[in-house]
Amino acid sequence: GDSVTQMEGPVTLSEEAFLTINCTYTATGYPSLFWYVQYPGEGLQLLLKATKADDKGSNKGFEATYRKETTSFHLEKGSVQVSDSAVYFCALSPAEAGGTSYGKLTFGQGTILTVHP
Amino acid sequence: DSGVTQTPKHLITATGQRVTLRCSPRSGDLSVYWYQQSLDQGLQFLIQYYNGEERAKGNILERFSAQQFPDLHSELNLSSLELGDSALYFCASSVAGDGYTFGSGTRLTVV
């Protein structure tokens, strides 16, 4: 079945450091890929997404490129801030079926990011 | 506000009891998904409904059940509760081409 593997955490960085969180996946066909962020005590918020190979999703300075050849969707940010401290989840949904709805999201285990001033 | 409403936000109950969690999807979204988040299991998919019908089932225990009503809101029923059922329960809704939107969750504590 579908699966998502994220790099082990936690990740601790100083403000303005470069961030990479690795994500690889196993799925058939061409799934859609997502990064979600969860701030302490809150729900999951969509950070960015990509729906086909070579697409780059971007939002709030974060970027991730859908790499079909390496089945990866690594999250990057050039300069992190203290306010980026949160848990980051990589996820996939299966290739759209029938155009009526996405299938279920499969999540990675999450990576805790802590940014110090 | 994401547009997906979950109630209650917090729930404390005793072992053996039964609770109902409620989710109202974003306006126009026909699909509702339920997830359980715990420290040891991470985010686990429980069940999906689409326009009132069960569409997919994940790691949902037999003690748990769900339904989606004609107005598209959904309820997750958890019965014969055990300590291990303590977790965050999230609901999400989606419409094709627009991705998933999550509610803020219900934190269930079983004592």
Describe the protein's architecture and organization.
The complex is a heterodimer of chains A (117) and B (111). With 117 residues, chain A is mostly beta strands. Helices cover 0% and strands 48% of the residues of chain A. Chain A contains no helices and twelve strands. Chain A is globular, with a radius of gyration of 14 Å. The termini of chain A are far apart. By secondary structure, chain B is an all-beta fold. Chains A and B meet through strand 5, strand 6 and strand 11 of A and strand 4, strand 5, strand 9 and strand 10 of B.
Sequence-ordered SSE layout with sheet pairings:
The complex is a heterodimer of chains A (117) and B (111).
Chain A: E1 3-6, E2 11-14, E3 19-21, E4 23-26, E5 32-38, E6 44-50, E7 56-59, E8 62-65, E9 75-77, E10 86-93, E11 106-107, E12 111-116
Parallel strand pairs in A: 2-12
Antiparallel strand pairs in A: 1-4, 3-9, 5-6, 5-10, 7-8, 8-9, 10-11, 10-12
Chain B: E1 5-7, E2 10-13, E3 19-24, E4 31-38, E5 42-50, E6 53-57, E7 64-68, E8 74-78, E9 87-94, E10 100-102, E11 106-110
Parallel strand pairs in B: 2-11
Antiparallel strand pairs in B: 1-3, 3-8, 4-5, 4-9, 5-6, 7-8, 9-10, 9-11
